[in-house]
Design brief:
The chain has about 650 residues and is α+β, with helices and mostly antiparallel strands. β24 and β25 form a beta hairpin. Strands 2, 3, 5, 8, 11, 13, 14 and 15 form an 8-stranded mixed β-sheet that branches. The protein has a 5-stranded mixed β-sheet with strand order 17-18-19-21-20. The protein has 17 helices and 27 strands. α2 crosses α4 (about 335-350) and α5 (about 355-375) crosses α6 (about 400-415).
Amino acid sequence: AKKEGGQPKKKPAQRPATSVKGSCPHSVANFSEALVERIDLQLKVDFEEQVLQGECKLTVRSIKPAPHVILDTLALAIESVTDDNGEPVHWEVEESPPPKSNFGQSLVIALPASKTTTLSIKYKTTEKSTALQWLTKEQTQGKQYPLCFTQSQAICGRSLLPCQDTPSVKAPFTISVTVPEPLTAVASGEPSGDPESSGNFRTFRYEQKVPVMSYLIAIVVAHLESCQIGPRSKCYAEPGVIHAAQKEFQDIVEDFILKAQEVVGGAKYEWGSYNVAVMPSSFAYGGMENPNCTFMSASLIPGDRSLTPTLAHEIVHSWIGNLVTNAFWKDFWLNEGFTRYIERRVLGKIFGPAFRGLLLLVGYNDLIKAVDMLNQQGTPGLTRLEPEIDEIDPDDAFSRVPYEKGSLFLFYLEQIVGGEQQMTDWLGAYVAAFRERSIETEDCKQHFLKFFKGVKRIKEIDWEHWLHGEGLPDFDLSSYVDRSLVDESRALADSWLNTSTSDVETGHMKAQQWMLFLDHLINAVVAGTSISHDTLASMESKYKLSLTKNVEVSFRWCLLGCKCKWPVCLDWTEKFLANHGRGVYVKPLYMALKAFDAERAISVFQQNRGLLETWFLFDKQESNLCCFPICFSMLQNLKDRFGLKCLWIGRWPVLLR
C-alpha cells in the first residue's frame, strides 16, 4: 500500500541496499546513505481532538549518492513535503517488509542532488500515535485541566514525528509547542526565551544543542507550577503536588550530579540544566531520562526520600544512554546496565558501602524474579545480555535483565580489574571515547580489553557466558559485598519463616531492607516454602505494611499475598493496580493475581476505568476492556494470559472476554 503526495505517481527509483553496519533491525531509515543531522519541530496541541498538528524540518546530509531519504513513521497523517525553497517534493508512504512492517511504515522522500537539503514535513498525529498520552481533567491530580505527555522509548518516536527512529542516529533539535492558556509546555531542552501569547494560546520554545536520539524528544503539557530544587535544577508539577516534590528533591539533585561526575572519572555534565517533571502515578515508568527534564512518576514521592535512587539513576543517564548510547536495542544493557552500576556507586559514596551492598542484593533478587518470569513465559533467550530481538518490538523484550544482569557484570569486572577506582578511570576514558556516539557491545568490549591490557585477570572473563548465556550468571555476588544491612533483612525473614514471628527491632530499617525482607519471603514461596495466612496476618498487625507509602514495598507485599493466595491481600492489590501504571509492577502483579483468582484479576482489570494514564476504558455496554495505544503491546501480553480476544473499535484496541 502506498500514499503519495507532491508530484504525480511514478515508479520509484531503485534504492540501493544499506550496509549491515548502517541499518537497524527496528528502523527502515537509510541513515548510512542519507543522515538527518538536525530537527526543527513545531507542534500545536489540540486537546479536543487529542492530536498534535506538526511541522517537522529535517536537515539531511547525503553520505553517499541516494535518490531518497527513508524515514520511520507510525500512525501519522502526512500532509505535504517541501524543500528549502518551499517547492513540493515527491514522497510516498510505503508498507515496510516484514518484520519491520510490525514497527511502522516508510516515508520515502526524494532527495535533490545537493549534499545537504532541508525538508519540511507537515503532518498530524492520529488516535493510534503510540508516543502520546492524553488525560482528561478528571484523571489529573488537580482535576481542572487536561494533561498530555509523550513517551517515545523505545520505537514510538516515529508516531510523534517522521524521523530516523533508531538509537544509531543522533541530532540536535529545536521544538516549539503551542498550547491553550493557562497550560504550560515543558520539553527536553533548554528554554529559548519567554513564552509568547497569541489569543488564547501560548507558545513555548526549547533547544537541545547536544545530539540525541529521536526517543529523547519529549514534551509534557499540563497545568504546571515550578520551583527551584538546586542551583541548576527546577521541578515542574501540578499545584497539588509541587510542595511535596520540592521537599523530596530539594538539594539532593545537585549532590547526585556531582557524585555521578566523580564516578564517571570527572566527565563533564554537558546539558546545562537538570530539571524534573512529576508525572501522574500511572506513568508507565518510574522515571524517563529526557535530557534537561527527567519525567518522574508521582508514585516515587513517598515523603521520606526512600525512592530517590530512581532520581540518581535518571541523572546518571546524562552520561550513559543519552551521551554514550547503545547503537541497537540488542545492546540496551550498555544503557541501563551501566547506569544501574554507576547509580549504585553514587549511592555508595553518599550512604556507605553497606548501602551499596544492600542495593546490589535487592537488584539480584529482582534479577531472579525477572529470569523466572521470562522462563515461565517461554522466552529464556531474553535473559541474555545481548539477546536476539531483531524480529520483535524492543518493548516486548523489556525486563530488568539488562539493568540487573548488566550491572552485575560490571560489578564482576570491578573485582577483576582491582576495584572502584580502576573502574572509574576506565569509565572516564569510555565516556571521552564514545561521547555523542552510538556503539555496540563489541565496541565496549574492545575498549575495555585495550584499557586493561596490562591486567592479567582479564583473561578470566568468560564474555560468552556473560553476554550470551541464559539465566543467572555463575557469580556469587554475596561473597563480595558488605552484607551488614542485608543480613539484618535476611535474619528477619528467616525468623518469620522458621517461627512465624519475630521480636527483632525494625524501627531503624531502611526501605530497601524491607524490600529485601519481602523478596526473601517471595523467593521462599516460589521455591516451595509455605507461609500461612495467620503468619501474614501477624506481619500485617506488627508492621502495618499495607499502609506504607513506599510503592516498592507495597508492590512486594501485594505480590507476596497473591503468591500465598491470601484473600486479605485482594483489596490492597486491587487498590494498587488502580493507582500505579509502572510496567515492572503491573505485569508480575497481574500474573500473580491471575494465578490466585483469575475472575478477580479480570474484574480488577475492568474496574480500572478512568483511573490510569489512561490504560483502561470501557465501551457503552461496559463489557469490553479497552486500552490507550501506548499500552497496547503490554495488553497484548495480558490478553494472551487472560485468554481474551482483541479487536479495534474506533480509536481503541478492545479486549474481549
